[in-house]
Amino acid sequence: MKSGNPHKDAAQPFIKWAGGKRAVIPFLAPHFPDYIKTYREPFVGGGAVFFTFADRIGQAYLSDTNKDLIITYQVIKHDVERLIDVLDEHKRMHMKMAGCTYSGGNSHYKKIRSQHPKSDTDIAARFIYLNKTCFNGLYRVNKTGQFNVPEGSYRNPAICDPVRLRKCSLALQKAHIRLCDFEDFEPRKGDVIYCDPPYDGCFAQYQKDGFGRDDQKRLAEAAHRWDKIGAKVILSNSDTEFMRNLYPSWKTFTAKIRRSIGQKVASRTKAAELVISNVVWRGKCQPHR
To answer: How far is the C-alpha of 233 from the C-alpha of 227, rounded, in Å?
Structure first.
């Protein structure tokens, strides 16, 4: 079986993302076949799982309900060189105006955060720029859907990484990218589906409507439907009694993972992550049932 660790030349996520899965990948790897004809990820987020296993995947269907995120994926796939040019300009202006932030002036960050660009490339560049320069890389919107995270205190943020973006673009050539809810697709027998929704009891304000327990129940109902048609389904979530009760007959495994949200790395406590699967477990670690 191939290692769950990404190859040195593999693409890696182009944004920071709350709940990113890089630390969980070793626990997910035993669930993933050596070859995946069709892969579906309806909560793609930062894409860590897709990029890790991209060399095993024939074709992928990546989706999310975050419109700016999906536009960014599409631009990276189809227009990465233009995106790199716009990000380079953001980097230049950010460094030029860096002294304004704490002196009460209007920084480049505040200017871009207040804008609503029209072109897809400008939307994607704004999304990545804000992600790389906002406080802790946190994506959060208010009730009206406006991004409202304050600026972070970074000396030299990695606003533009051309090598990483080009590798992501290459990996995404095999992906169909859609803005949709997880219920808006119909998988087939043999498809591998990985779901990483906002976690039960954790921060979920990625979208103005959030993702509550009614949504967790909707997802569980969908996962059981996919199981019945013969799809291979893997999910990640918080290790809570509520989540276990939604999947009473499925295999589960708990891993202690350091959360990616917190002002200081040292203050980010480890929390129990629950891997839920209908796939036969492979490897040394054994599921709870």
So the answer is: 7
Q: Which two tokens stand for residue 221?
A: 């109902």
Please state, in angstroms and rounded to a whole number, the distance separating the CA atoms of residues 191 and 196: 16
User: Contact 216/246 with Cβ under 8 angstroms?
Assistant: yes
Q: Phi/psi of residue 212, each to 5°? A: -100, -165
Model confidence pLDDT, tens digit, residues 1-24 = 444 444 557 899 999 887 667 778
pTM of the model: 0.88
Q: Tell me the per-residue pLDDT of 26-83, one tens digit each, with 9 for 90 and over.
A: 888 888 889 999 999 999 999 999 999 999 999 999 999 999 999 999 999 999 999 9
The residue with tokens 């990616």 is 260
Closest CA to 170 of 284, 104, 77: 77
CB 237 within 8 A of CB 275: no
**Owner of token pair 């129990």:** 272
Which of 55, 59, 48, 57 has the alpha carbon at shortest distance from 26? 48
